[in-house]
């Protein structure tokens, strides 16, 4: 049996950081188990290549939810990274930390050390922000963050001006003093290449003699000695293998895979485990429960001015931007599809923003035959203004279907399952139209394509966003953190309640979702979690 001090299951946004931090001193040996393969693929490294990885089973788990009544019975597509770097290798790269109030609420709920003032030094330590250092931003860290303010599409300025006319202030830094307003998104790239957690953290760690990374290694079970985790059973190349952890087993599989592996290993709702013939090691009804996610929708417009559609659709345009990227590592392929966005309140009485905006200078309404919409820009000048809710009250769950580790778990998202979520989304989509009606934007709009001018009543708007909304890929809280073992899965030091030698360190521990994209907070969790592990070593 292989023996290491630590076994980290998952090499994603948190797991890559955990492996790097635990191995940095040279004191401890670390084994990283990744179910997927390498991240050394062209469309992974090219920022806009995530349009190609969005459905690619070679790098993507391609999960599906159960038919969701809140989404008009639709089955939602949930891409999750299945490769080194995890979802940080296939995401849209937007760098948003979350609001001060998010983390202060975590601390107020009894999670000592997780308030904003506790976490700001962590964020600054891991960052190398191109915009420069100040009281909010860090430089010199392993993760490079690109300032895109000089390279976005010209239409972005019209969006910013129209949003200002609609009452939203310009915000030069969503990771600064406040989130509210509109501005240009910072993204995780460097020199025109994706800066995933694998590139920033794991690959430097892999150069150390005390780190071993096994790819195509599917963790199937946590090995226990009584109530103590002592190792991992995994499948690799058709062979079952065991690895022993002398100190701790750390789950960093994310909000789908971490609760799945706990349940497969006998940690979870006792009735579910018993029905599947899995011996209960520790009963905890919260494993896989409390699922939270951000849900979003795009409003798409036909414009009077050229958009990226006119460049990214024709063969000569693809050749041009391809050459620009290959020779200069610049141009549209070096950016995210979300050039800009912002945060706003659907009700002025709301204490802080509850909605996030996205601006995309292209549209994908009409796919080619047999092709998914995300891959082909429309043949006319189109652009989209999108949004997602920040702190929805709807809750779902992720539970295993069988005792077979290869079988995907059952994902019940329960989107828009509360009246509050429906009401705020209705107000939010009306605000998109308000932005589009401002003079700076209205001057260049030919027509609203989706949902279209015939959709005007509240009932029709609600029906439309139920039909067309979907995840924006920020599932959290399925192994939520909290001091009360009856209401949480891990304690504030990320140790699994009721067990020894076992932690969960990834976005599944979030007590509640944050205001914005979750990748930054996931990476922070990896850094913070590794600090806690090291503090507890004797």
Number of E-type strands? 24
Number of domains: 2
Query: What's the number of helices?
Result: 15
Query: Could you name the CATH topology of the largest domain?
Result: FAD/NAD(P)-binding domain
What is the strand and helix layout of this fold?
Elements: E1 2-9, H1 15-23, E2 30-33, H2 42-45, H3 50-53, E3 63-64, E4 77-78, H4 100-108, H5 116-126, E5 127-129, E6 143-145, H6 155-165, E7 181-184, E8 189-190, E9 193-194, H7 197-206, E10 211-214, E11 217-225, E12 228-236, E13 239-251, H8 254-264, E14 267-268, H9 270-275, E15 282-283, E16 295-303, H10 309-312, H11 315-328, E17 340-344, E18 355-360, E19 382-389, E20 397-399, E21 410-412, H12 419-437, H13 439-442, E22 445-450, H14 458-468, E23 470-471, E24 502-504, H15 519-535
Parallel strand pairs: 1-2, 1-13, 2-10, 5-6, 13-24, 14-15
Antiparallel strand pairs: 3-4, 7-17, 8-9, 11-12, 12-13, 16-19, 16-22, 16-23, 17-18, 18-19, 20-21
Key features of this structure:
Cholesterol Oxidase, domain 2; 21% strand; FAD/NAD-bd_sf; 538 residues; 7-stranded mixed beta sheet; FAD/NAD(P)-binding domain; 24 strands; oxidoreductase; GMC_OxRtase_C; alpha/beta; GMC_OxRdtase; 15 helices; 2 domains; globular
């Amino acid at each position: 049996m292989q023996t290491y001090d630590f076994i980290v299951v998952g090499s994603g946004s948190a797991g890559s950081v955990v492996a790097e931090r635990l191995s940095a001193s040279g004191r401890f040996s670390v084994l990283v188990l990744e179910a997927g393969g390498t991240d050394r693929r062209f469309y992974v490294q090219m920022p806009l290549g995530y349009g190609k990885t969005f459905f690619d089973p070679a790098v993507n788990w391609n999960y599906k939810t159960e038919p969701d009544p809140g989404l008009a019975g639709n089955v939602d597509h949930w891409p999750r990274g299945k490769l080194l770097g995890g979802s940080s290798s296939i995401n849209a790269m937007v760098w948003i930390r979350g609001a001060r109030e998010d983390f202060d609420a975590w601390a107020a709920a009894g999670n000592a050390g997780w308030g904003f003032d506790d976490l700001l030094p962590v964020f600054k330590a891991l960052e190398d922000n191109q915009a420069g250092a100040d009281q909010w931003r860090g430089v010199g860290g392993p993760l490079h963050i690109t300032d895109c303010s000089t390279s976005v599409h010209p239409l972005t300025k019209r969006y910013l001006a129209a949003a200002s006319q609609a009452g939203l202030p310009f915000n030069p830094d969503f990771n600064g003093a406040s989130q509210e307003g509109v501005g240009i998104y910072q993204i995780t790239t460097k020199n025109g290449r994706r800066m995933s957690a694998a590139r920033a953290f794991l690959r430097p760690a892999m150069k150390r003699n005390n780190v071993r990374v096994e790819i195509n290694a599917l963790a199937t079970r946590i090995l226990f000695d009584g109530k103590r985790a002592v190792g991992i059973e995994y499948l690799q190349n058709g062979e079952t293998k065991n690895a022993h952890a002398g100190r701790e087993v750390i789950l960093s599989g994310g909000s789908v895979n971490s609760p799945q592996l706990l349940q497969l290993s006998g940690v979870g709702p006792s009735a579910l485990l018993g029905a599947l013939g899995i011996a209960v090691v520790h009963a905890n009804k919260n494993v896989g429960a409390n699922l939270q996610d951000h849900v979003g929708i795009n409003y798409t417009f036909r414009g009077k001015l050229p958009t990226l559609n006119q460049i990214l659709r024709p063969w000569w345009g693809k050749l041009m931007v391809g050459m620009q990227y290959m020779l200069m590592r610049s141009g549209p392929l070096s950016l995210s599809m979300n050039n800009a966005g912002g945060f706003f309140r659907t009700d002025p009485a709301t204490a802080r923003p509850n909605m996030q905006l996205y601006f995309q200078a292209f549209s994908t309404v009409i796919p080619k035959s047999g092709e998914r919409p995300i891959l082909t820009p429309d043949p006319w000048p189109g652009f989209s203004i999108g949004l997602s809710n920040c702190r929805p009250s709807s809750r779902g769950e992720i539970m295993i279907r069988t005792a077979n580790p290869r079988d995907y778990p059952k994902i019940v998202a329960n989107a828009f399952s509360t009246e509050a979520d429906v009401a705020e989304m209705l107000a939010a989509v009306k605000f998109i139209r308000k932005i589009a009606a401002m003079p700076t934007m209205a001057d260049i709009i030919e027509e609203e394509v989706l949902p279209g001018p015939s959709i005007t009543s509240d009932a029709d708007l609600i029906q439309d966003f139920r039909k067309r909304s979907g995840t924006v890929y920020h599932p959290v809280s399925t192994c939520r953190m909290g001091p009360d073992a009856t209401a949480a899965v891990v304690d504030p030091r990320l140790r699994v309640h009721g067990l020894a030698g076992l932690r969960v360190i990834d976005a599944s521990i979030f007590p509640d979702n944050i205001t914005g994209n979750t990748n930054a907070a996931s990476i922070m969790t990896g850094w913070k979690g590794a600090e806690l592990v090291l503090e507890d070593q004797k």
